[in-house]
Write a structure and sequence with these properties.
This protein is an alpha+beta fold and 186 residues long. It contains eight helices and six strands.
């Protein structure tokens, strides 16, 4: 059963509303991040501080690329009573997984359009290959500019967010490794 979390307003306000409503899931997801990062490393698991330190290496790039996301994450941190650094590390779960060499499951996405289905409309979807204890939040967001979005948020955003928007855009999440990344994981 999923409760629908409704958020609206500025990016910061939306983040704060989500953080407040999903505090327990965010805390649980951060604990899962710490418990699962580096499980396959011969030297053992890194500590929470090291995980956060490695996530923060991505912060300058994210600040340049998606300042709205930084506002949302700042609001989430305040709303949940969690540090921004923990929320940011959670959002970097996939990057940390590649860094520590611990990603071990991937998803499958599909799309069908035109004559490929009976309705002749575009259909998108995916399966999500994560552990049984992954938290899932259903969030309806209304931005100040009128855009509406319905999202499934996995592990507080750390394991992805799949959205459909009122603009007719949909998103699925898939991972394809380049030969360099494959070599790192092997």
């Amino acid at each position: 059963e999923l409760d629908l979390i409704e958020c609206s307003g500025t990016p910061y306000t939306i983040g704060k509303q989500y953080g407040s409503a999903c505090r327990d899931n965010l805390i649980s997801s951060i604990e899962m991040l710490v418990d699962s990062t580096g499980l396959m490393l011969p030297a053992g698991k890194p500590g929470k501080g090291e995980i956060i330190e490695n996530a923060l290496k991505h912060l300058p790039i994210v600040e340049k690329f998606d300042p709205v996301l930084i506002e949302i994450l700042s609001g989430q941190a305040e709303g949940a009573g969690i540090s921004f650094e923990e929320i940011f590390a959670l959002r970097c779960k996939f990057e940390l997984g590649l860094y520590y060499g611990s990603i071990n499951s991937f998803c499958t996405s599909f799309a069908a359009t035109g004559g490929a289905n009976k309705s002749d409309k575009t259909i998108i979807g995916q399966n999500y290959d994560l552990t049984y204890d992954t938290t899932i939040d259903l969030v309806r967001t209304k931005f100040n500019d009128g855009l509406e979005q319905l999202s499934l948020v996995f592990s507080g955003g750390g394991a992805g967010e799949i959205s459909l928007t009122s603009a007719g855009l949909g998103m699925v999440l898939n991972v394809i490794l380049s030969p360099v990344e494959q070599h790192i994981l092997n």
